[in-house]
Design goal:
By secondary structure, this protein is of the alpha/beta class. It is built from 17 helices and 15 strands. This is DNA repair protein RecN.
């Protein structure tokens, strides 16, 4: 609900604070008094483009602020949460315009973009003007009307949950199929690389071990000769070094107990004799095992060549890195197989989700179809009441591809003159016709839809008498469920007001300003009498006005 509108330095308004009530708020005033200026100022906080020409005093900025009560509006709360704005029961929207035309917008003192302001405003205010493009012609609103008539709130919530689940599985499957398609192109290459490494069958550290073995094989003759020389020197020749050590030990043996140092020398000679004897035996043993093996050298070279080729191909340096690469390729190949299995699982889930969604969509569609005839009859009856006896609507409902609102395509068709030639509303209905049609439809669903504040700007143009009275009655009925603000020239409508605001011009020296005030009962009677009978109403007009206000 719009509680207050504060306007400063806009057009011919120096400063104005307007307070609104729940129910039916009527705004009247003479032509040119500034009623349309009020709507222009309100449009700024609804997200319309700013124009520097509206700034009254170029040395100050223009300021328009609206205070809204939003305690029970879920759509507004969701918007605030989605846009990281404070969720409060009172919402303050402010628009500031500099003399340069640059503007800024704020929601509860937090800066917002014009797009955000426009998205929020449609959840707060539904502004109907004579020549506006109204939401009545939009499929989303038309389906919402049918669902309100059918009481589909719970069913629609179930369907939307099911539709989003179906969409999510679709997106997941599409993404997965893209990955599979990409991976399949590489699968053959991965398999080739893996097979190549598998066939090579390298064991851990094999290439490093082969390099060491090749060095040994290449030096076999030299090693054998060196080992033979060692053995020959230590034990093979006469006198052999080992034998000489034994002789020296025997020569010193008799003196071992005569001097402690000689005993130590004897021990060392004995140890040297044992060690050199062991070295000679080991050298002989190694010499017997060492020899030039041309076949083995060729075999090792071939194995190393294969290994070096793979190292170079994959840009690695060790056997361990080749084995790691083989393991990674194996993992990739296994992952591709797992993706195929997951795709099959998602296909099954998608089919089940589509079946559940389709069932709910069919139930929605059937519930909507049942309301087509009742809606047509009730709206057409109301159209006759508001001065459009020859007009009628027809609801065209047919199956369509699934969307967030179901699997139905809808169009409200309109015939203004009993021609039986129905066409979409947006193509054939005039501004006044659309506004009155919107009033009729919203009066039917006001208690079942989360409607914002409804503002009607002179939708009564072209009607009078009984039609005006009926418009007033319908607005009064509509205002029981939602706040309604109406600018009117019709006394029959003004007489239904819960709050009557009067717009007027006042002169302050050479300056003319627009102002507004709330009328009490007697002032209302006078204002309505003037609407009936002119500037100086007759007694009959005053009595008629009193009857309108009192009733």
């Amino acid at each position: 609900m719009l509680q207050e509108l504060h306007i400063r330095n806009y057009a011919i308004i120096e400063e104005l604070v307007i307070r609104f009530d729940a129910g039916l708020n009527i705004i009247t005033g003479e032509t040119g008094a500034g009623k349309s200026i009020l709507m222009g100022a309100l449009s700024l906080i609804l997200g319309e483009r700013a124009d520097s020409n509206v700034v009254l005093n170029k040395e100050k900025k223009c300021f328009v602020e609206g205070v809204f009560s939003v305690s029970q509006q879920e759509a507004v709360s969701r918007f605030l949460e989605d846009n990281d704005l404070d969720v409060t029961t009172e919402l303050v929207i402010r628009r500031e315009i500099a003399s340069s035309g640059k503007s800024r917008a704020f929601v509860n003192d937090t800066p917002v973009t014009l797009t955000q302001l426009q998205e929020l405003s449609v959840k707060l205010v539904d502004l109907h003007r004579q020549f506006d493009t109204l939401s009545l012609g939009e499929t989303g609103f038309q389906l919402a009307v049918m669902d309100a008539m059918a009481g589909n709130e719970s069913l629609l919530a179930q369907y939307r949950k099911s539709f989003r689940q179906w969409q999510e599985i679709q997106r997941e499957l599409s993404s997965l199929m893209g990955r599979i398609s990409s991976d399949k192109k590489e699968q053959d290459y991965f398999q080739f690389l893996y097979n190549e490494l598998e066939d090579a069958a390298f064991r851990e550290n094999e290439l490093e071990d082969l390099e060491a073995e090749l060095k040994l094989l290449s030096s076999a003759e030299g090693i054998k000769a060196a080992l033979a020389g060692i053995y020959e020197q230590l034990q093979g020749q006469e006198p052999a070094i080992v034998q000489q050590l034994k002789i020296l030990s025997h020569q010193l043996q008799p003196f071992g107990d005569q001097h402690p140092k000689i005993a130590e020398l004897l021990e060392r000679l004995h140890a040297a004799h044992v060690e050199l004897d062991d070295i000679a035996d080991e050298a002989s043993h190694l010499s017997d095992k060492t020899g030039h093996d041309s076949a083995r050298i060729e075999q090792v070279n071939e194995r190393l060549a294969a290994g070096y080729k793979l190292l170079k191909k994959h840009g690695v340096k060790t056997t361990a890195e080749l084995l790691q690469l083989k393991q990674e390729l194996s993992g990739k190949l296994e992952a591709i197989e797992v993706l195929d299995e997951k795709a099959a699982e998602l296909q099954a889930r998608l089919g089940a989700a589509e079946t559940a969604m389709t069932e709910l969509a069919d139930r929605l569609g059937n519930a909507r179809k049942k309301q087509v005839s009742p809606l047509e009859k009730q709206v057409n009856s109301l159209l006759a009441r508001v001065g459009m006896p020859n007009a009628s609507i027809k609801v065209h409902l047919e199956k369509s591809a699934p969307s967030i609102s179901g699997s139905d395509d809808i169009d409200f068709l309109f015939d203004a003159n009993k021609s039986k030639q129905y066409a979409p509303l947006r193509k054939v209905a005039s501004g006044g016709e659309l506004s009155r049609l919107m009033l009729c439809i919203k009066s039917l669903v006001a208690n079942r839809m989360d409607l914002p504040t409804l503002i009607f700007d002179e939708i009564d143009t072209g009607i009078s008498g009984e039609a005006s009275r009926q418009v007033g009655l319908i607005m009064k009925e509509l205002a029981h469920a939602r706040q309604v603000i109406c600018i009117t020239h019709q006394p029959q409508i003004a007489g239904r007001a819960d709050l009557h605001l009067f717009v007027y011009k006042q002169s302050l020296g050479s300056v003319i300003n627009t102002n507004i005030r709330i009328l009490d009962k007697e002032e209302r009677i006078q204002a309505i009498a003037q609407m009936l009978g002119g500037e100086k109403p007759t007694a009959a007009a005053l009595e008629n006005a009193r009857e309108m206000v009192m009733n």
